[in-house]
Design brief:
This protein is 77% helix and 0% strand. The protein is an all-alpha fold. 18% of the residues are buried. The chain contains 7 helices and no strands. The protein is elongated, with a radius of gyration of 23 Å.
C-alpha cells in the first residue's frame, strides 16, 4: 500500500487504473488493520466496550464491501481496456474513475450503516453477558446484503472476465493466423 501511495505522488502515474488500485490497496490495508482488533477478541471476550464492538463491525462491513466494489470497478476497467481499446481513453477518464470510487465507498457506507442501524442505535443490545460482541441482522436485510455486496458483484466480475477471455483468445487466434500467413508468404518468396 505504501508503494501505491508513493507512486501516486508522481504525476505520470496518475492513471485511472492506478486510482482503482490505490482504492483497493487502501481497503485491503484497512481490512488487515481491522484484523488486529479481531485478535483483541481473547477467548471470545471483547474488552473494548459495546460501542467499539459495533464500530468494528460497521467498519469491517464497509471496508469489505468497498473492496469488493473496487474489484468490480477494476474488472470494468479491464473489460473496456481489452474489449474496446480505441475508446478506452474517452470512456475511462480520471474524473469518472474518481467519481466511481467515491460512489463505491459512499454506497458501501450507506448500505452497511443502514444494515446495522439497529445495532448502532443501541450498542450491546443483543449481548447476553459482559464482554460479548454480538450483532444481529434482519434475515431479509442479510439476504439483500449478501446479494448486493457479494453474489451480484462476483457475478459481474465473472461475466466481465469471461468476456475479456473470449476477446483475448480471438485476438490471439487472429495474430497466430496473421503470423502464419506472413511466414507462408515469406517462404513462397524465397526460391
Amino acid at each position: 500500500m505504501i508503494s501505491m501511495l508513493f507512486s501516486y505522488l508522481f504525476r505520470q502515474l496518475h492513471t485511472p487504473t492506478n486510482l482503482l488500485l490505490l482504492s483497493l490497496a487502501v481497503s485491503d490495508f484497512f481490512v488487515g488493520f481491522l484484523m488486529f482488533f479481531q485478535i483483541v477478541l481473547i477467548d471470545g471476550c471483547w474488552l473494548l466496550g459495546d460501542f467499539m464492538c459495533i464500530l468494528y463491525y460497521v467498519l469491517d462491513y464497509i471496508i469489505t464491501t468497498a473492496s469488493i466494489g473496487t474489484m468490480v470497478l477494476i474488472s470494468v476497467d479491464r473489460y473496456v481496456a481489452i474489449c474496446d481499446p480505441l475508446h478506452y481513453p474517452n470512456k475511462v477518464t480520471q474524473k469518472r474513475v474518481k467519481i466511481c470510487v467515491c460512489l463505491c465507498w459512499i454506497c458501501s457506507a450507506f448500505i452497511q450503516t443502514l444494515l446495522l442501524k439497529d445495532n448502532l442505535e443501541q450498542p450491546g443490545r443483543y449481548n447476553s453477558c459482559f464482554g460479548e460482541c454480538v450483532i444481529v441482522i434482519n434475515y431479509i436485510a442479510g439476504l439483500a446484503d449478501l446479494f448486493l455486496s457479494f453474489i451480484g458483484p462476483v457475478t459481474v466480475i465473472i461475466v466481465l472476465y469471461m468476456r475479456v477471455f473470449v476477446v483475448a483468445v480471438s485476438h490471439a487466434r487472429a495474430m497466430r493466423s496473421h503470423t502464419a500467413a506472413l511466414t507462408l508468404e515469406c517462404s513462397a518468396r524465397t526460391p
